[in-house]
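[Automated response] Your request has been received and processed.

Submitted sequence:
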Amino acid sequence: MANVLNKYAESLLEVAKTQGVAHSVYADLLEIKQALSNDTAFAAFAENPKVSNESRKAFVAETFKGVDKPLMNLLYILADRKQLGFIPGIVDAFVEYYNIDNEQAKMKVESVYPLSSEELDTLGKVFIEKTGYKKLLIENVINASLIGGIRATIGTTVYDGSVSNELNQLSKSFQKQ
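Generated structure:
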């Protein structure tokens, strides 16, 4: 199924880029995913085989009016194929392809307290230089177990400058001796 989601996402990105609306589609998809994330009624509707194609298409037309044409066309295709339940997976795949295409990545910064905008901007600039990305989408997560410092995660790479990590490293070095 991941293959299908990836094909939908890749095709949507390609068409959106051709029409110059990739960023708008990206923003719309993030909003759609957020809106659908806890909507059990949508999940039940999307998976109900008794709902007619006309009802699904009417639902799409009413619920998603105002989105760009490439996204609306995909939603109609999903409605026609009874695959509206694929939307969250397609959003995830689209975001991944969009980020790669735009040389940007998500960055999770863990700290003991909420970091200011200035601190996050400074960290972003440092890690942009370090990683070569053009843009980092930074999320600050509070983690009291760090004791101090920060832990930054970009993709599968972790940069750990926390006090708890330093203490662990120090403990390991004593154990070796």
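Summary generated for your ticket: Helices lie at 2-18, 22-36, 40-47, 53-63, 69-80, 87-101, 117-131, 163-176. The beta strands are 104-111, 135-142, 150-154, 157-160.
If you did not submit this request, please reply to this message.
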